[in-house]
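Deliverable D2.4 — example input (structure tokens):
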């Protein structure tokens, strides 16, 4: 019931203003009929007409000119008090009711400094005027009541405004926190989707390229050398089986909570590099591997990144530089692993935007705290160079020792 009434008042503010103005006018007119809390006379027409002015000013101007309305209604309240004293009734703080409401609304819509200044001004003005109500007497009950009502109106308005601002600030902070949580959740989902997309791209591109090369070689050897063709077909079956296992392991990461656990293969790393090189050599690609410096273990993320970059780089050699030879160089320093994959192919440089393979390799390097550069070599072929930290660091962060090592090389 009360909630419905409150919603109605918020939907019809002008009706509420009219009701307040009427109530103020009735209270002022009714007070003019009282002496010693008894009805002694009928309302005076002139006084009743004059009492309309502050109520009308409050009704028409309190939303657009709150400061002016406070001043005008204060003057009107003083005039009504003087008129009441002359026609023979004891004025009360009710004759300044419009000024009190205007002061409350001003405190509700402005700041503390403005409220303090206008509250003090209204209090002084009404107390001075009330001296004339009692023929110069001071500290009468009506004066103390008027002063108390003025201070109470300003204090209540300021308190309501402060509480309203506090609630608005709390709601704004809660909304901002909720929006921030949603944005962080969306960002995490996007990053996870990108990571899984990179993983799927590397798996599919590598194994499909190998399967294509093995199938083409088997078809070529089928008539002239059926024994070698059969061997190549057996390798093709192994390639597709490996692809299915890795796809199952990757897609298994997407299973929902409560789904049956699926066995996942160990995360590949540089320890499986000989196996990876052997899979490419079955397609006819000659790959040489060299290691400089003392081999050291990498963090799990960097180890997987190094493996996937070599895998993707050699896959690109197989697809775009047929008949070429490739080299993989691992250079270990105190803090960095420099991984270089190059080929001597003679495919012409391609124009336009690089494919998802290069984009994925760069994203992988950055996610592991390293960096990657790729491009055509001056003497032909293509080269991919990656620097990965041997210690866990924030993505994109390198210390001064890394810079010195890169400069020395």
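Example output (designed residues):
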């Amino acid at each position: 019931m009360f909630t419905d009434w409150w919603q109605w008042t918020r939907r019809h503010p002008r009706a509420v203003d009219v009701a307040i103005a009427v109530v103020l006018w009735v209270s002022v007119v009714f007070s003019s009929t009282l002496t010693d809390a008894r009805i002694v006379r009928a309302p005076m027409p002139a006084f009743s007409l004059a009492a309309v002015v502050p109520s009308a000013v409050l009704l028409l101007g309190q939303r657009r000119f709150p400061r002016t309305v406070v001043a005008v209604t204060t003057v009107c309240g003083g005039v009504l008090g003087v008129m009441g004293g002359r026609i023979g009734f004891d004025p009360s703080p009710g004759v300044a009711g419009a000024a009190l409401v205007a002061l409350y609304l001003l405190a509700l819509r402005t700041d503390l400094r403005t409220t303090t200044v206008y509250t003090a001004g209204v209090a002084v003005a009404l107390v001075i005027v009330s001296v004339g109500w009692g023929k110069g007497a001071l500290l009468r009950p009506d004066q103390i009541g008027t002063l108390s009502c003025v201070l109470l109106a300003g204090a209540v308005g300021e308190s309501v405004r402060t509480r309203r601002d506090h609630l608005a600030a709390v709601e704004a902070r809660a909304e901002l926190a909720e929006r921030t949580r949603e944005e962080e959740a969306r960002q995490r989902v996007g990053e996870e989707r990108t990571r899984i997309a990179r993983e799927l791209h590397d798996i599919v591109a590598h194994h499909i390229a190998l399967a294509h090369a093995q199938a083409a070689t088997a078809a070529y050897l089928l008539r002239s050398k059926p024994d070698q063709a059969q061997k190549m077909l057996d390798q093709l079956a192994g390639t597709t089986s490996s692809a299915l296992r890795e796809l199952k392991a990757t897609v298994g990461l997407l299973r929902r909570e409560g789904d049956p656990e699926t066995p996942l293969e160990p995360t590949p790393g540089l320890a499986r590099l000989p196996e990876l090189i052997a899979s490419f050599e079955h397609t006819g690609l000659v790959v040489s591997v060299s290691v400089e410096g003392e081999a050291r273990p990498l963090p799990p993320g960097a180890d997987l990144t190094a493996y996937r970059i070599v895998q993707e780089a050699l896959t690109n050699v197989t697809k775009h530089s047929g008949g070429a030879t490739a080299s993989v160089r691992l250079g270990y320093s105190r803090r960095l692993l420099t991984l270089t994959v190059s080929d001597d192919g003679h495919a012409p440089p391609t124009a336009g935007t690089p494919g998802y393979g290069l984009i994925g390799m760069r994203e992988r390097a950055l996610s592991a705290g390293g960096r990657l550069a790729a491009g055509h070599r001056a003497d032909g072929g293509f080269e991919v160079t990656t620097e990965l930290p041997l210690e866990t660091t924030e993505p994109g962060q390198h210390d001064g020792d890394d810079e010195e090592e890169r400069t020395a090389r």
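Residues 141-221 form the longest helix (81 residues).
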